[in-house]
Model the fold of this input.
Amino acid sequence: MSKLGTLYFLIGKMGAGKSTFSRKISAELGAVLISEDDWLNTLYPGEINNFDDFLVRHRKLLNLLQTHVEQILTSGSSVIMDFPANTIDSRQWYVNLAKNASAAHQAIYLKASDEKCLMQIANRRIEQPDRAKFDTPETFAMVNQYFEEPLESEHLILLVIEQ
Done:
């Protein structure tokens, strides 16, 4: 029997550095990186103007990728999902995805203050002007109200990184 891959997923507020960390760990581990931003920008250019637009397309994308990610994991490759795993329900989806592939999971929580996240969001607006419409303090406040810190009762294999 071949070795299975590990599913890595990230927890962290908007602006905590999930995408930057995902790229770094993907390179270090030689794992397949699946970036939600890349997929959404390719599939829905110019169509995500608010949080509701994002949620609709986010759910469609997860449905599209589920079988694909399971196949990558069962082939023996690890996968880094650069998608927010910021609610208990979303984290359970990733854990179930790993279970369906009989693979391990690793949740990585990038714990950062609101101030640090807002500073990084402001920098991102400058570096990536195409995101300026969505990456605002107002969007941060709206998205942040749904953020749920990971709980012991979730039984995650969890790595916490203080930012």
